[in-house]
Amino acid sequence: MTQGQLAELVCDHVEAATGHRPAVDDQAISRIECGEIAWPRRATRQALVALLGTDSEAALGLYPKRTKRDSNKDEATKRRHFLALAGLAAPLLGSRTPPHIGTIDVERMRRKFIKLEALDSEHGGGDTFHLYFTELARTEQILRSSTRRLQVSDGLVELAAQQAQQAGWAAFDAGFNDVAVGLFEYSHSAAKQAGSLELEANAFVHIAYATGQSESIQAADAACAALGVSAPGKTVAMLQSRRAWSFAMEGETDAAARALDDAHAGLDAGDDAPSWCSWMNHAELDIMAGRVWSVLHQPERAIPRLERTLADYPDDWARDKALYLTWLADAYLDAGDHEQAVAAAEQAFTLASEVSSVRPLARVRETAQRAFAAGAVGAADLVRRAAGARAPIPLQL
Questions:
Q1: Interior/surface letters 163-173, b for 16+ CB within 10 angstroms, e for the rest
Q2: What is the pTM of this model?
Q3: Closest CA to 33 of 53, 52, 13
Q4: Within 10 A of 58 (CB to CB), how many other CB atoms are there?
Q5: DSSP string covering 17-61, please?
Q6: Tell me: the pLDDT tens digits for 189-220?
Q7: C or N: which end of the chain has fewer Cβ atoms within 10 Å?
Q8: Span 153-193, pLDDT tens digits
Q9: Burial of 279: CB neighbours in 10 Å, binned 0-12, 13-18, 19+
């Protein structure tokens, strides 16, 4: 039903029940939907319950004298439900929760998590997941049991959104996609409550990245568009580069190219950014652009970018370097350079073997199979060895 149609039905229902026709129109329905009218007249509430087939006014989100604190409690319940759906239980945390939390405490928690985020560069998700998830559980524990001002609550919820994205990324990296998506959904709920459009958009982008579903890509597209020009340049660059990747995976060349252009424009703005995207720079954007053009089978655009950046890329960041080498190998195959392709894939295999991430070995297997199908010398042996290799990943998180 449109808002106007529902308004007409409400008026008919109230008139039949009371003999009086109320002044409920499409604007009134819109204001009820948006929460501007939290507690309409009794007859209107009863009409909405009857017409929409719910068992209570609360099921429609209608509450008397509804406050932001009430709304936050509802959002917290939804967030924790996402964790339950993801099959995750909060770990047992040894230290006592402080009875009161202030701005200084939140900032201390934020600085600690920034240090933990840096571990993602050198370790796979199988090694880092519990570090990130324990921090999220600690934040949730504080949100449940400590007193604080509303501003402090918003800071904690925003931190929880950031922690959930990092934990979700680690789960995705370790091959637990359902857990990852559950955490990304949690993150979206928290970011929405905290009023962080940037983290909301990043949650959608993560979901699109993990699922590859066209609906997720469209949601991420809309969220990025909603940011407008107000977001920090590095934030825009990271979000747009990840959008470009999603478009590339869908084979949408023009959309991917536009997203990369937007990413470059954001990075050139050169302003500050939150910690979760502060690592974004021209080298990382070159890597993403190279991957995008490799997936889109344009080796003449992929190879120069990937070669240039990987020449100085540290082996200590083994997971990422292994992944990027596989896309370089794919680009070499598209260019007909089989020898270079196998050499890049071999280097990727060496780096991937000891990393607690499922993604590098999976990519090496795909690239080795491509090289074998193309008749590349040495590809058959790489296929055999890659098939027998196993990443050091736990059976469950």
A1: bbbbbbbbbbb
A2: 0.74
A3: 52
A4: 11
A5: HHS------HHHHHHHHTTSSSS--HHHHHHHHHHHT-S-SGGGT
A6: 899 888 888 898 889 989 988 888 877 788 77
A7: N
A8: 889 999 999 999 999 999 999 999 988 998 998 999 899 88
A9: middle
